[in-house]
Amino acid sequence: MTDVSGGAPDLVCARCDKPLEMRKVEASYLGQTFPxxxxxxxxxxxxxxxxxLASGRMLKVEQALxxx
Length: 68
Ligand SMILES: [Zn+2]
Description:
Layout: E1 21-29, E2 32-40, H1 51-67
Antiparallel strand pairs: 1-2
Bound molecules: zinc ion (ZN).
């Protein structure tokens, strides 16, 4: 584990070893596409999605669909 001394923890691309940048990307779930801000690698385009975020998003999308 890297020692994080103050500030937000920096996410680094495991492949390129470059810091990830917040980018607006399109996530899709159940055929629906929606914009979401996620840390992306500027070099290879890797998008970091934490399991927490992914499950939270999916839950929200499912609820939205059921409401209709
Ligand atoms: Zn990368």
